Predict the structure.
Amino acid sequence: MFEENYVLLADAVIVQAAKDYRRASTPQIREVLKNFFLSEWFCALTDMDGKKLYNRLERERRTKRRRKL
């Protein structure tokens, strides 16, 4: 039961980081979040591939940016 709560908390941290990346208004904020996705802490929170998640978020951002132009 307690372990499930930790998993839910870890998932919430990752979901919030992804939302923050999508809403980031400066390259510096995106860099901080990129460092999180590629960090050992991220690996401790989940089995998810942080590099793949970061690449997906960056592709989304670039695609969205191109549509605005």
Observations:
- Residues 2-68 form one domain.
- The CA atoms of residues 25 and 42 lie 22 Å apart.
- The helical segments are 2-23, 27-37, 40-45, 50-68.
